[in-house]
Every structure is written in C-alpha cells, then in structure tokens.
Amino acid sequence: MNAAEVACWMVTGERQTPRIRSLYLKTILKQDIAFFDTETTTGEVIGRMSGDTILIQDSMGEKVSYSKRISIFIMDHDLQILS
Known about the structure:
By secondary structure, this protein is mostly helical. It has one domain (2-82). The chain has three helices and no strands. It has helices spanning 2-29, 33-38, 42-82. Helix 1 (2-29) runs antiparallel to helix 3 (42-82). The radius of gyration is 19 Å and the shape is elongated. The model has no long low-confidence stretch (mean pLDDT 81).
C-alpha cells in the first residue's frame, strides 16, 4: 500500500507541475518591463521557476505521503493511549 500511495502522490505532483509552471510564467510576463531591468535577470527567473516547481513536485509527491503516514501513526497512538 505504501509504494502505491507514494506513486499516486508522485504522479499527482508531476501532473500539477506543468500547470504551476504555466501560471508562474504568465504571472512573470505580466510584470512591468522595468522589473527585469532592476529586480531580476532572465537566468534568475528561469532558475527560480525550475527550482521552485521541482520543490513543489517533490513536496506533493513523497513528502505529502510521508506526512500523511506520520499523522495516521500519531492519531493511532493517541487513540490507543485514550482507550
């Protein structure tokens, strides 16, 4: 069950990543042109977009599944103590 659950969460993360990248790019392109002259460079935008979406994908994949399992373990432990 654990491997299948992790796999499902990883697929969910992979499916959401292109949508997040697209929304991120649309938001960046709506910025005033002066933003790119003073605040950031093209390489920084691309690097941040790639890095941030990879972090989101990893978080949705392995870490959500892991957090869910830890939460279930803690709740089960608490219920056993209360019983």
